Amino acid sequence: MTAETSQTLDRGLRVLKLLADTDHGLTVTELSNKLGVNRTVVYRLLATLEQHALVRRDLGGRARVGLGVLRLGRQVHPLVREAALPALRSLAEDIGATAHLTLVDGSDALAVAVVEPTWTDYHVAYRAGFRHPLDRGAAGRAILAARQHTAAGHPGYTLTHGELEAGASGAAAPLVGVSGVEGSVGVVMLADAVPERVGPRVLDAAREVADALR
């Protein structure tokens, strides 16, 4: 901790992060051990966070993330979606396929913005709010590839076929260099394979979105 930071705020944020990383909640004693502070401090932190609905405690006394965190999160997605829409519209019209921005939500990939092409006779129906495991589909796999990537350049794009919907292929590239945002930009189309030009075009769109979010 430096002189310019708040120790109490730091501890409160650490409590939220710890609770966000567990599905079954944590007791005061468990939080005390993980934070390295006494139980009285933890009680005060939880009481303050509960006042703002950021934490709730069940009948057994285990603390969990509260609904207030969801309300905060809902304000973030519209801002990200708005910034991404121009690049997604251009991508969808250029490729003639459904374009999407996908963000990490726990262990899932969550589509937060979707743009369908206006000139095609048919395209894949892909809706905002659709979620799937990170290790299935191009959007999630691109994010995982970025996590494993080293500093030697851009991780590139990912291609998949039939992992989320029979007969559908996908291409996605991760957002790179955007602080606090982990996600990807991609397209999904009804095709046996992704045309050669699609991957590089998706990569360009991901860079456009990343620039818009910086």
UniProtKB/TrEMBL annotation:
Keywords: DNA-binding, Transcription, Transcription regulation. PROSITE patterns: HTH_ICLR, ICLR_ED. One of its GO terms (molecular function) is DNA-binding transcription factor activity. Residues 6-67 form the HTH iclR-type domain. Pfam families: HTH_IclR, IclR_C. Residues 68-214 form the IclR-ED domain. This is Helix-turn-helix domain-containing protein.
